[in-house]
Inverse folding.
């Protein structure tokens, strides 16, 4: 038994056709403003996704189920299944949810009136409120259409009416009933005669129907399943051909009472002996299912260009099917979708369940005008709105929205750059367009100053993403101090500060060094800026300091042998035993030469006292430093 399109709802809202992931939008409610309640769902069940499949077993009553239909009565769900070989009818009671495992009872074969090889079944509620189920089947002399009358509830024990072989039935298989403008019409396909029969009940399903065989339209070949679809005011039937692994489409125009035209859509490799099919228009798109019996699989149909356009076929193997035979209608209950599949080979019933998802930022809302919402990930999503939920005036509508993939650009963590260095900002991934904060449109950006930088990228789907990074200058705190001096015989300590490594011009690699001779001293230090991924990034700094030697000596002395100031030499010279001291007179003549600390100069030259005057000296410490020059005065 096949599903059909829902009636056009008297409510409406608009949403964008496509958006990008994480992009906010607002659904604009165009419905009436006096509804008792509004219920929005931003991830209603979607037939583009894979359903969860549960094998419900035989429930103790199914033997070789061929077809199954179900209906909702006063909040309770009832199902009826035909057992193909035994001819028994099984009633299923799901309670208040189709997610329940139903209880089952065998209604029997009604005194043998239900024929061997019973096939299609459909439940319908008459305009009077009474419930009926119509059954088709038989092979040869027992081809027939049956009517079960339940009265005011599907829980009642039904009575049966044999409507006989009408419309030249010849192994009739699937069955479909519809109320078209107050006239009840039924259709079945005849497997052996490759034909289609139509039943006309008039305005009441309790009437005996008029029947006509419409013949072979659309190159029928072992037709099995039949499904009607109404699109843009026109009726179309799809029929499976198990003999040619193909579909036939019949086009009726605006009325099912017309004589249709037909076309065979060609063999489909994905279908191997196709049996039943079901098609539904859901959230602005048409979808279908075909039972591929010999593959023990389902084939999903997608109609991207509408019902009369091309069809995409996708094989769905769920592992629990074994020669699927019949497919129930595709049934949407608010925000969930259910499909039931009978397995004639293993005598079980399968339930396909399409649930809601968790992708939107707001899943539901009871506001007349809902807040802005976004989807976290790309995909195909359904948005539904229910007015007056649970009331007789309840209305439902659904819209589809496609969410495109959003690029995820990253410039990395905030970082620092070394003085007088450059950093290349690179998003690494390739995008369709790039836009930097300075208007540059290259993929990379060469940075040499501190600041905040951002990049906006666009992918080939037109979606954007932006990331920013804060660049700071790594502080250059290295300073050895001002040029300085030290006193002869003492030392001075140079401290480079706290860094990761040191390279002094002396060859030392410690934080501090002791200076015992004058000169220019330089240090190169490395400071760790970043460590990660097995790589270390260092900033390198250098500084230089001039250290001069300060020689402390008396300005004069009195070599008069009185025991006071009789000799002269620089203080602390004993630290330099190899030092050489040269004394010159004002005419530049060398008058005395001393080595090391030997008591100092006694004011003589060649053993003779020199005259009181000012004399010059050159002190060479013999340590590689520059000689020191100065003057002294002799007083008598």
């Amino acid at each position: 038994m096949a599903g059909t399109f829902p009636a056009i709802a008297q409510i409406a809202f608009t949403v964008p056709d496509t958006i990008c992931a994480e992009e906010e939008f607002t659904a604009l409610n165009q419905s009436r403003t006096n509804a008792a309640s509004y219920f929005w769902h931003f991830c209603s069940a979607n037939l583009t996704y894979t359903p969860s499949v549960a094998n419900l077993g035989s429930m103790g009553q199914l033997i070789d189920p061929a077809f199954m239909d179900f209906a909702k009565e006063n909040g309770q769900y009832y199902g009826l299944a035909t057992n193909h070989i035994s001819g028994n009818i099984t009633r299923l009671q799901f309670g208040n949810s189709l997610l329940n495992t139903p209880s089952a009872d065998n209604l029997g074969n009604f005194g043998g009136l239900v024929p061997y090889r019973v096939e299609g079944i459909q439940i319908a509620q008459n305009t009077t409120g009474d419930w009926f189920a119509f059954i088709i089947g038989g092979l040869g002399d027992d081809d027939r259409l049956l009517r079960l009358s339940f009265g005011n509830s599907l829980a009642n024990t039904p009575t049966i009416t044999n409507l006989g072989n009408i419309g030249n039935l010849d192994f009739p298989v699937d069955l479909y009933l519809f109320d078209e403008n107050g006239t009840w019409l039924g259709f079945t396909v005849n497997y052996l005669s490759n034909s289609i029969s139509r039943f006309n009940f008039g305005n009441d399903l309790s009437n005996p129907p008029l029947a006509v065989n419409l013949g072979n339209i659309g190159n029928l070949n072992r037709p099995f399943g039949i499904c009607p679809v109404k699109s843009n005011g026109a009726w179309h039937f799809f029929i499976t051909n198990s003999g040619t692994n193909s579909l036939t489409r019949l086009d009726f125009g605006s009325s099912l009472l017309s004589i249709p035209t037909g076309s065979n859509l060609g063999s489909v490799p994905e279908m191997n002996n196709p049996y039943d099919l079901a098609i539904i228009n859901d959230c602005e798109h048409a979808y279908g299912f075909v039972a591929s019996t010999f593959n023990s699989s389902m084939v999903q149909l997608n109609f991207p260009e509408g019902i009369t356009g091309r069809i995409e076929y996708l094989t769905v193997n769920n592992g629990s099917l074994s020669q699927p035979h019949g497919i129930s209608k595709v049934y949407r209950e608010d925000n969930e979708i259910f499909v039931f599949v009978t397995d004639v080979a293993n005598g079980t019933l399968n339930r396909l369940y399409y649930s809601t998802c968790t992708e939107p930022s707001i899943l539901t809302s009871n506001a007349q005008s809902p807040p802005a919402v976004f989807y976290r990930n790309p995909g195909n999503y359904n948005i539904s709105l229910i007015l007056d939920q649970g009331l007789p005036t309840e209305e439902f509508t659904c819209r589809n929205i496609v969410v495109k993939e959003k690029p995820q650009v990253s410039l990395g963590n905030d970082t620092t750059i070394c003085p007088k260095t450059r950093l290349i900002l690179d998003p690494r991934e390739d995008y369709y367009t790039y836009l930097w904060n300075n208007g540059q449109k290259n993929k990379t950006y060469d940075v040499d100053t501190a600041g905040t930088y951002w990049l906006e990228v666009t992918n080939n789907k037109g979606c954007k993403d932006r990331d920013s990074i804060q660049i700071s200058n790594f502080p250059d705190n290295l300073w050895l101090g001002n040029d300085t001096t030290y006193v002869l015989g003492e030392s001075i300590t140079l401290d480079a500060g706290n860094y990761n490594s040191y390279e002094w011009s002396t060859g030392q690699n410690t934080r501090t060094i002791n200076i015992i001779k004058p000169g220019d001293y330089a240090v190169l230090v490395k400071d760790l800026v970043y460590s990660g991924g097995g790589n270390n990034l260092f900033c390198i700094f250098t500084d230089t300091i001039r250290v001069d030697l300060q020689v402390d000596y008396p300005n004069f002395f009195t070599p008069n042998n009185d025991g006071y100031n009789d000799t002269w030499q620089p203080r602390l010279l004993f630290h330099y035993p190899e030092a050489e001291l040269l004394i010159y007179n004002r005419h530049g003549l060398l008058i005395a030469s001393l080595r090391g600390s030997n008591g100092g100069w006694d004011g003589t030259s060649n053993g003779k006292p020199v005259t009181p005057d000012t004399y010059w000296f050159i002190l060479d410490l013999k340590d590689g430093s520059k000689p020191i020059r100065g003057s002294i005065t002799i007083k008598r």
Notes: The chain is about 0% helix and 50% strand. The mean pLDDT is 91. Residues 144 and 164 are 5 Å apart (CA to CA). The two ends are 139 Å apart (CA to CA).
